[in-house]
Amino acid sequence: MSGPNSTYDPVEVTPLHADSVASMRDEAVAAVDAAMDLDELKEVRIAHAGDRSPLSLANREIGALPPQARKEAGMRIGQARGAVKVALERRTEVLEAKQEKRMLAEETVDVTLSYDREPRGARHPLTKLVDRIDEVFVAMGWEVAEGPEVEAEWLTFDALNLGADHPARTMQDTFFLEPLDAGVVLRPHTSPVQARSMLSRTPPIYVVCPGRTYRTDELDATHTPVFNQVEGLAVDKGLTMGHLKGTLDHFAAAMFGEGISTRFRPSYFPFTEPSAEVDLVCFVCRGIEPDVRTCRTCGGEGWIEWGGCGVVNPRVLVACGVDPEVYSGFAFGMGIDRTLMVRHGVEDMRDIVEGDVRFTLGFGTEL
Amino acid sequence: MRVPVSWLRDYVDLPVDVPAKQIADRLTMLGLKLEALESTGAGVEGPLLIGRVESIEAEEHSNGKTVRWCSVDVGEEQPRGIVCGAANFAAGDTVVVSLPGAVLPGGFEISARRTYGHVSDGMICSSRELGLGEDSTGIIVLAPGEGEPGDDAIELLHLRDDVIEFEINPDRAYALSVRGVAREAATAYGMGFVDPAKSLSAAAPGAGYPVRVDDPTGCDVFVALEVLGLDATAPTPRWLAGRVRLAGMRPISLLVDVTNYVMLELGQPIHGYDRAALGGEIVVRRAQAGELLTTLDAVRRELDPGDLLITDDTGPIGLAGVMGGQSTEMGSRTTDVVIEAAHFDPVSIARTARRHKLPSEASRRFERGVDPTIAAAAAQRVASLLVRFGGGRIAAATVVGSPVPREAIEIRTDLPSRVSGVEISEQASVEALTTVGCVVTVNGDHIEAVPPPWRPDLSDPYDLVEEVVRIVGYDRVPSVLPVAPAGRGLTPRQRMRRGVEISLAGAGYVETLSYPFVGDHDLDAMLLEPDDGRRMSMRIANPLSDEEPLLRTTMLPGLLKTLARNAGRSQADVGLFELGCVFLPAAGERPKAPKLGVERRPTDDEIKQLEAALPEQPLHLGVVLAGQRSPAGWWGSGRFGSWADAVEACRLVARALGLELKVVAGTRSPWHPGRCAQLLVGGTLAGHAGELHPSACKAFGVPARTAAAELDLDLLMHHAAQVVQAPRFSTFPVAKEDVALVVDETVAVADVEQALRDGAGELLESLRLFDVYAGEQVGEGKKSVAYALRFRATDRTLTEVEVRAAVDSAIETAAARVGAVQRR
C-alpha cells in the first residue's frame, strides 16, 4: 500500500490505471451475476463492494496521486463502484424474488382442511321471522307494540267483545291462573296488546304486535300449547276493509314473494265486524293448473289459510276509548309458527318447540 | 254440520250437473266453510236391481252349511238363480240384487260363479255390502211397495250421494240445519228457496199435556204435543234413516230418528218423552241446590241452581236444551209420547252444557241461537212423521209463551260503502238484506232492517254491514295500502334485544324457546331451598300436565331440559340461550283485577288496578353450555366449556348493551358453591353465572360440569347507555410494563386488578392479566398474578420516571389493599 504522495509517479499506482479499474469492475459484476442465492450474494458483496474489496482498496490510492490526477482517478473508481452497486441491487431483486417464490411454494397448505374450531350459533327461526315481519311493518311507518303474557281477563276478553259467556273464555281454550277470581290468564291471543295500544295511544294508531300466546292444546305435529302470533291494528279516520286488504296483500307479498295476494272469506270473530278469514295464493303453485293439482303445500286448493281479520267492532273501540263516530279501524292476526311451517316446509310442530340445535342451526341464514 | 246434497236439493233448485265441490266452494265464500267432502257410493256401479224372491230351496251341504238356492225375478224375461247364505227372507220378499258386472262399495266386483253345485247369477245384498251400515245381520228386505222387480236400487236406496261437511261459525247458528244451508245455497246460485218451515202447519194450541213455565227468561216458548197409540217398533223409512246417517248421526229407532231428522232439517232440537213415564204437569224451572238427575247417557248429575230444568211431579226429568233424563226415555214399548219443542236462553244453555261438560247436538244449537218462531211447526212436523210411519194419532198441543218480536236496526245508507271500501248502492244493500231474510224499509238516508227470527246474531249496525258485504262479495273489496304517519321505528328495548341475541348467536350459542311450565320437581332439581324466592310462582288452574302447573320464575329448568334432550340425541357439545319472561308474583296477596264494564274506556285508575293484578314479568336471559366449546383437531387439542364461558357470555351481553359487569364471587342454587359468580351492574345484582352443582347436573340429566348463567335483561337494558360517547385516545408512544404480584390464593383477581388500576392513575391505558401461577416457587397458599400494563398520556411522550412512578404507585396500592408482594 502506498502512502500519500507528493510526487507524481503513475507507474507506482497501477491499481488506478484505467485498465485495471475496468477489470476489477468487470470481475465484480461477473461475480455478482454468478451469485445463485442471497447468501452467495452477501459474500460477493463483501468481496467486491466491501471495505477490503479491490475497488475500495484502489480508492484509497487516490490520495497518493498528484492533485491534478486525482479527479480523473476518482471519477473512474466512482463509476466502477456505481456499476457494481447497480449490479448488486439488480441481482438482489432477482434473488429475493426467487427466494420468495421458493418460500411460497414451500409454505403451501391443504386449504381443504376443515376448521370447525369455533362453535356455531344461531337465533331461532321464529325470532328471525318476527324480525322480518317487524321490518315489513316498520318500513310502512307502523310501530311494534308489546304486552305481558300473563294478562288481565278484561283486556284479553271483555274489551274485545268476548262477553262472559263466550266459548273462548272457558277453560277449554285458555289457561287461567289461580285464584280463578283474580281475573288473570295466560293470554290466548295477542289481541290484548291491541286493547293496550288503543288505551295508551291516540289515533292514528298503526301497530303490529308479535308475541307469545297460550292455549290448552296438547303438543302434536300441528298444535302446540305455546305458540306465537302477530296481530296488526290500524285505527284512523276513514279506514275500510279495502285498506285491510291492501295491507295484507303487501304483507303477503313481502313474506311469500311478489304477486302473492290474499283472499277474504266471511268468518266470525267477536272483536271484528265484518270479519274474514284470509287465505293467500299458494306461493308454490300459485293456484295455476295443472301444478295446483299435485301441490303439496296447498293440498290442491291453490290457497293457503293464513289468519283472521276484519274491521274493528265499534264495541271494541268504545271499550278502549276510541270514538267510533270519528275513527274506524281494522285488525288482523296470524300464527307465526304456522307461517314458519308453511313458508319453510316444516312438517312437524315439535321441531319448532323442542329446541334440537340441528333444527335451529339449519336456519343459520337470514329468513 | 254434514249436509247431503240430495237433501239440499229438496229446498233449492240447484243446477243438475253442478259438482258438490263447486257448491261447497261457493258456500265457503259466503262464510260456510268447507271442512270435508265425502262422496258415498262413488264407486258403486250397476246393475243393482230390485228383485222378488219367487222360490227358495234350502240345501244342506256336507260341510254342515245350509245354503238357499233362490229363483229371483229381477224384471227380466226369466228369473235368475242365485245362491244365498242368509236366512232372514222368504219367498215373495222384495230384495236387492247385484247382477254380474256390478261393483259394490270397496270395489267389490260381482260375477256369475259356480258354488255349491249351482251357477249363482248374482248376489242378494245386505246393508253392509251396500255400505249402508254395519248393524244389519242379514240381507235387506224391502217393505211392500218400496220397489218393483227391475227398479234401479242405486236410486231407490240413495246409495249415491255427496255429503258436504261445513265448519259453522258461532254466529251462523241457522246453518246448523239443512234449512239454513239451503238458504245460503239459494243465495250462492241465485235460485229460489223453498223454506221447509214455511210449508208446515203449526200445531194448533189447545189443551194438551199440562205445562207451566216458571222461568220465562230461560224459556220463552215451550210447545208440548202428544202423539198417542204409536207403534214404537215400526221401522224408520230407509230414506229418512239414510239422511240421518249421512248427516253424521246414528239411526236408532223411529222415535229417535224422527226427532233427529227434524232437528237436522229445521235446526229445532226436539225432545220426546214417554208419556206413560211422566208424572203430572211439566214444569220448566231452575234447579234447586242438591237436586239430582240421571241423564240419557246414564250419568247421575248433581244439579246447579243455574241449571234450567224440565221437571214433573217426580222432580227433574231433563236438563233443558242439553239432554233428557233416563226416567222418561222413549223405548220400544212406548205408545204415547209428548214431543217437546222449545226455545231456551242461549247463555243459560251454554253454561249448563259447560258446567256438566255435556256438549250435545241440542245444546250446540241452543247456545248459538235457534229460531224461536218455529217450535210449534217443528213439533207438528215430528208428530206427523211419527204418525205417518208409526201409526197412532196427534192429540192436542200445549203452547206456552211466544217469541219476543225483533226490533229494527238502523244504518246510514252509506255505511256499507264506508266500512267496506266498495261502492255499494242503497238498492244493493236493500237487496242483500232482503236476501238474508230481513224486512227492510228505506227511510231517507237510512235503511231500517228487522232481522229474521233465525238470525239472533244480527244485533248491531255493523252486523248488517257484514251481511251486505258478504252478499255483495268479499272478493269485490279493493286492495288499497293505507298511509300511516311516520313512525319511530323499533324501541330501544326492541333494538337492544336483537343486539343481545345476535351477539350470543355470533359467539356460538343456539337460541331455543322452551315452554314456561314447570313443576315442583324442577325447582327441587334446581336445589332451591324451601324459602328461595324462586319457589314463589304462579299456578295455572287448568294445566295441561299436573306435573307442570307452575309458571317459571327462572329460565334455567327449560334450558337444562332442552340441553338434556340434545345430549340424549347425541349432541353433547352444545351452548344454548333463551330470552323470555319469567313470572314473579309480588309477595303477599295479589290484588284481584276489577271487573270492568265495556260501555266506556276504563279510567286511568282502573287501568292501574288491572296492572296491579298482574305479576312482574321481567325479560330474562338464560345460557347453558356443556361439553366442548372447541373440539380437538389437526390444529391441536380441544377446549371444554366451563364456568368461565358462562361468565364471559354475560360479559358479552353486557358489552352488547354498552355496559361493564362487575363480577364477584357468590353462592346461589343451582350453581357450584365455589364456582358461582354474582354479576352486578351499577351496584345492583343482575344475575349469576358459573358451573352447575353436580347434584343439579344429575337431577336434570345434563352432562357433568354443565355451566349456566341467568341475567335480568330488563335490569341490564335499564342501565344501558342510550347514546355512547366517542372514545378519546392518544397517538403518543405507549410505555409497557409487566408486573408480577404474589397474593394469598383466596384474594380475587378482580380486587388485585382494581387496586392496580386505582394506584396507577390516569396514565394507565390498559391492564391485562396474562398469567396466574400457583406452586412451590410462590409458596403454599399463595398465587402469582402477572399483569401487562400499558401507559400513555394524551399530550406527551411519557418519561421513564413518570412510568416508574405510576407502576410503583400501582404496586403500593395493591400491597396496601390485598397484601400483594412484587415478585422479582
What can you see in these coordinates?
- The complex is a heterodimer of chains A (367) and B (824).
- Chain A is an alpha+beta fold and 367 residues long.
- Chain A is 40% helix and 18% strand.
- In chain A, the strands form 2 sheets. Chain A has a 7-stranded mixed β-sheet with strand order 1-5-6-10-9-8-7, sandwiched between helices. Chain A has a 3-stranded antiparallel β-sheet with strand order 2-4-3.
- In chain A, strand 3 and strand 4 form a beta hairpin.
- The radius of gyration of chain A is 44 Å and the shape is rod-shaped.
- In chain B, the strands form 12 sheets. Chain B has a 7-stranded mixed β-sheet, with helices on both faces.
- Chain B is elongated and about 130 Å long.
- Chains A and B meet through helix 5, strand 1, strand 2, helix 6 and strand 3 of A and helix 7, helix 10, helix 12, helix 13 and strand 28 of B.
Tell me the major beta sheet of chain A.
7 strands, mixed
Give the largest chain-chain interface (CB within 8 Å): A-B, 100 and 105 residues
Largest sheet of chain B: 7 strands, mixed
- Beta-strand share of residues of chain A: 15-25%
Work out the helix count of chain A: 12
Structural class of chain B: alpha+beta
Total count of helical runs of at least 4 residues of chain B: 21
Given as residue ranges, the uncertain stretches of chain A (5+ residues, pLDDT < 50) are none
The tally of beta strands of chain B, per DSSP, is 42
- Quick one: overall form of chain A? rod-shaped
From the N-terminal CA to the C-terminal CA of chain A, the straight-line distance is: 87 Å
Strand content of chain B: 25-35%
The shape of chain B is: elongated
Look at the structure and give the mean pLDDT of chain A. Answer: 91
Quaternary form: heterodimer
Q: Write down the Rg of chain A.
A: 44 Å
